[in-house]
Write a structure and sequence with these properties.
Elements (H helix, E strand, L loop, with lengths): L1 E6 L7 H10 L3 E4 L6 H8 L5 E3 L13 E6 L2 E6 L12 H9 L4 E3 L6 E6 L2 E6 L9 E7 L5 E7 L2
Parallel strand pairs: 1-2, 2-3, 5-6, 6-8
Antiparallel strand pairs: 1-9, 4-5, 7-8, 9-10
């Protein structure tokens, strides 16, 4: 079993993300952009925990790629901020196609600042919301089981 703490749209407000990551005690950390340099703070705070990150539309001179496909146990995971696939609160079709092209059964994205979890065909879509901007801060815990089952929980940051 692998537990991944997923953050997005921190926009330089890192304390809520760092506190949530401390409490999560995850096996893997994921940051989905806006501001990709915030992921470096996760790397510094948790040097022994693997970290995957992508950049977002607000990242100038980004350190991270725009998209990334990784394997977490038996599950292939597609990571992107979402802006390249025109995601919105009501549309993620292009993201689903991109994940399918990569052979991924889980697509993680941000950009909209709204937490979202849905199954579309063979792809589980998850947006952890924003961990840094606004009054409703959220993040997500993804649990990947040895049999390939995926559990996603949206969590509030107090």
């Amino acid at each position: 079993m692998i537990r991944a703490a997923v953050f997005s749209d921190t926009h330089g407000n890192n304390f809520p993300m760092l506190e949530a990551a401390r409490q999560a005690k995850a096996d893997v950390l994921i940051h989905l952009g806006d501001h990709d340099r915030d992921a470096q703070l996760l790397r510094q705070a948790f040097p022994d925990t693997p970290l995957y990150s992508v950049c977002g539309n607000c990242d100038l001179a980004p350190l991270a790629p725009e998209r990334l496909t990784v394997e977490l146990g038996p599950v292939k995971v597609f990571l992107t901020h979402g802006h390249l696939y025109s995601v919105s609160a009501w549309q993620a079709d292009w993201l689903v196609y991109a994940a399918e092209e990569q052979g991924a059964s889980l697509a993680l994205f941000g950009h909209t600042h709204r937490a979202f979890h849905e199954q579309v065909g063979g792809v589980t879509l998850l947006n952890p919301g924003t961990a840094g901007k606004g009054s409703n801060l959220t993040w997500a815990m993804v649990t990947i089981f040895d049999n390939g089952a995926i559990s996603c929980q949206i969590k509030k940051i107090p």
